[in-house]
Amino acid sequence: xxxxxxxxxxxxxxxxxxxxxxxxxxxxxxxxxxxxxxxxxxxxxxxxxxxxxxxxxxxxxxxxxxxxxxxxxxxxxxxxxxxxxxxxxxxxxxxxxxxxxxxxxxxxxxxxxxxxxxxxxxxxxxxxxxxxxxxxxxxxxxxxxxxxxxxxxxxxxxxxxxxxxxxxxxxxxxxxxxxxxxxxxxxxxxxxxxxxxxxxxxxxxxxxxxxxxxxxxxxxxxxxxxxxxxxxxxxxxxxxxxxxxxxxxxxxxxxxxxxxxxxxxxxxxxxxxxxxxxxxxxxxxxxxxxxxxxxxxxxxxxxxxxxxxxxxxxxxxxxxxxxxxxxxxxxxxxxxxxxxxxxxxxxxxxxxxxxxxxxxxxxxxxxxxxxxxxxxxxxxxxxxxxxxxxxxxxxxxxxxxxxxxxxxxxxxxxxxxxxxxxxxxxxxxxxxxxxxxxxxxxxxxxxxxxxxxxxxxxxxxxxxxxxxxxxxxxxxxxxxxxxxxxxxxxxxxxxxxxxxxxxxxxxxxxxxxxxxxxxxxxxxxxxxxxxxxxxxxxxxxxxxxxxxxxxxxxxxxxxxxxxxxxxxxxxxxxxxxxxxxxxxxxxxxxxxxxxxxxxxxxxxxxxxxxxxxxxxxxxxxxxxxxxxxxxxxxxxxxxxxxxxxxxxxxxxxxxxxxxxxxxxxxxxxxxxxxxxxxxxxxxxxxxxxxxxxxxxxxxxxxxxxxxxxxxxxxxxxxxxxxxxxxxxxxxxxxxxxxxxxxxxxxxxxxxxxxxxxxxxxxxxxxxxx
Length: 769
Fold this sequence. Notes:
Helix content is 70%, strand content 2%. By secondary structure, it is mainly α. It has a two-stranded antiparallel sheet with strand order 1-6. A two-stranded antiparallel sheet has the order 2-3. The longest helix has 32 residues, at 373-404. The radius of gyration is 32 Å and the shape is globular. It starts with a helix and ends with a helix.
């Protein structure tokens, strides 16, 4: 039974990365079941024997308790004290339907419960890992298995990279050539994102490098010929070379991913490892082994990969001299969220739900993570959860370091140093990414911590106690009970989600707002009811039930399900607006308007809530209010000006009203001018085009297309004398653009100004021969 438990433990380590990083519900369910099954078999096999104390287990349990506390319904008065912003969110959304007297701290309790299960499984895995790895035999075997697994995975990634750059006919847009990837070129190995594969290698590479140093040949000071012979006959030479090869493969595969954060983090951690080992052992020749690994990595990566790596670092800034990623904006927005949720946060794993309310980054692309682990944990966990987590990590490393200082065995020294380097690397990378949110990488982080504990405590000499760890005061029965409870939670929540998805899958693409038969509506409602029973934490099913009951005129049931929906997800603009439309149909105009305004406030970068609210206002004959909403929509996202104009046309608004609704931005006026052209009103179009260009100086980023759109309008009418000032204005903003100089030359030529035309053509030729 003990061996079976250990094999399940190894299976979890191998399965997690191969299951596409373990980010989907099915993969999380399998992984957590493997961990629970391994723990149960281990604890049962121990019987009445005592388990070893795992450093930091109590602080880790406190972290899990704090996460669970975020998802428990609490009195509204208490929530108002510890998280006033959360209380206001629930009071304004679900409270608009009926009084919200109880509410959780989390703004999406379903996500927080799943985060609790994930974290609890990590803690349980750490605990059983400490039990297994307290045996030196199991420790060495585990390190061997993990190193070979990492080496084979790295070999595949290197093969994948070189077949891609040399154009071999393989389906590179698929993950591991098998599964479609929505991110295409970003996929590396079994991971959807190259940065997350890099995070895994950052943790495995130091282990392989440590084993490479542990198995190095020990050769006496004799002649060179004798040294060579001794090295060749050394019985551990093959292990030394194999672990060295594994380390080189892992580092090479990380470099070919072109992950900037991974490359920098690995480089820093590798240097720190070398310094730590030299300082601890006093063997300066150890640096030679690091040099050999670096040279091997440089060689195997090849010139093509290094060109791409250099290009990646060169492209870190865009044409405006700013960072080419949106991370600084994400981080600034995250700080704003933290200010409103400082104590308990918005709820673990709720960043994707709370971020739209504070978003300043343009566009509507969904942002699931802050791309900074520390800021995201502050946002979602607050000072309480983050403080407990940092204390637990520091406690584990400090207690392990205390014992490590007494160790003299080379195995313990090199292995513990490798674990510190792995922890340092992933912590550095977490400044610019979110590896801890990836199931496999989170698991391996806790595995590294367990190896660090074992390196410091496990004894390798025969005839001595197996470990320096002390036995627990309690026996294994409470651990069995905890494992069973976690197993039950995994089955109820995760398996329930899968079951709910199965019930609803046949109706996922059905348009219930369309013209369908009453029989299909009945089948739909039955399927959704089963899905809601199986997965009660999913607000989507309650929302669909609410709409189904509303369509059937069962208003009380619809109201109850709308309220439940908003208690499960009070920030969702779609749910808020549909609940608003429902209240409007029941004659509750004030509550309806409140929910629709909240939908805009909580998702102000999304154009759909603006359009829906404006449409409702027009239907209620509140035209001025509707125009104000559309003006705000175009200010938030100028590209939706076409949709706003179409909506105004649909409701029969005049051209004057449409013009008055336009904000002081270029693009909406250009769209209005295009509309005037389509209506045949070229005089109004001309004035609108010229008016649009008056707002250019107030734009944050001026686009060349603004001027070219107006230029084409005048050019199509052969009004070259009017087109020329437009291009001249464009050249004030883009003086180095050779294309604009050529256009200016063409216009001068048509106006018979040959000297000026020649001058512009000459400038264009100098800029771009």
